[in-house]
Amino acid sequence: MPDEQAAADPTTRPPRSGLVAALGAYVLWGAFPAFWPLLAPAGSVEILAHRIAWTLVGMLVVLTAMRGWSQLRGQSARTWLTITVASVLITINWGVYIWGVTHDRVVESALGYYVNPLVSVVLAVLVLGERLRRVQWVAVGIATVAVAVLWAGTGALPWVALVLAGSFGVYGLLKKRVPLAPVAGLTAEGFLLGPLAIGYLVWLQAVGVGTFGQGTTHTLLLVAAGPVTALPLLLFAFGAQRLPLATLGLLQYVNPTLQFVWGVFVEHEPMPPARWTGFVLVWVALLVFAVDGWTSSRRRGSGPVGTRPAQPTRSTV
């Protein structure tokens, strides 16, 4: 009961267990750029297939342990159609992200997850008919200028960031219409994606180009793609049930910040002046957005959807 009350009241001090769990999830997601390149010499598509396949295996075990199979029974055809479209979007998101962090695009991938909250609120306006406050529109406008600066200054559209933000934004919108808990929802997506991923992996091994089995360490790392994906999802689900939206909304920036730091200071990706300018504008937009959301949440509590910050959904990196 205390956890539920804290989640409903943003002025209440967040429960330590929920805070630790949510922060742990975002830190793990932020460390992903260090993990996926370890799966070389597997290519991006093979890594994606292993991630899908082993995540499904892990989710089957978790859902069984939670006795949650009843959640998947009796779902309507419309629900399964929504899950199917969401599965395609999560595949695109995961695939583009893995390609990005294995092809020196860590900074651009981080940009995608910085911009994602703003994309989500724009989709809420366009699709759900929600209304934003003037300050929120200012934040969206600054972010739009930031993308234009990055495009003009670097001579290339930051397509990795836009695909990541757009695919996850629409994915989150669809997930709000699926009446399933996070574990059951991810398992359902796995049922649709898993057979394709497993079939592709079997074909790779049959034609002799698959890397599974090429050394114990490499094989274990490929298998670890499942638990590495599932663990932060479970931590986030635990934390999200115990924290107010305003706290989650601020914590979500831990993930792209860690990715940005990794890309700049570990991978030493180039940061010309135009790129720094674009990122500074994005950070300003997010600061405006976060401060407005936090103050509004504290002032109004759990008010109407259009008057509080967009609910952060689980990351998909």
Structure notes:
It is a single chain. With 317 residues, the protein is mainly alpha-helical. 73% of the residues lie in helices and 0% in strands. The chain has 13 helices and no strands.
Task: Give the end-to-end Cα distance, rounded to a whole number of Å.
Answer: 32 Å
Give the rounded overall mean pLDDT. Answer: 86
Number of domains: 1
**Biggest β-sheet: count, sense, barrel?**
none
Low-confidence stretches: 1-11, 302-310
| Beta-strand residue fraction | under 5%
Highlighted features:
single chain; 317 residues; mainly alpha; 13 helices
Topology:
Blueprint: H1 2-8, H2 16-30, H3 32-35, H4 44-65, H5 77-101, H6 106-128, H7 134-154, H8 159-175, H9 182-206, H10 216-240, H11 245-251, H12 254-266, H13 273-300
Helix pairs in contact: 2-10, 2-12, 4-5, 4-9, 4-10, 5-8, 5-9, 6-8, 6-12, 6-13, 7-13, 11-13
Summary of the model, kept short:
By secondary structure, the chain is an all-alpha fold. It has one domain.
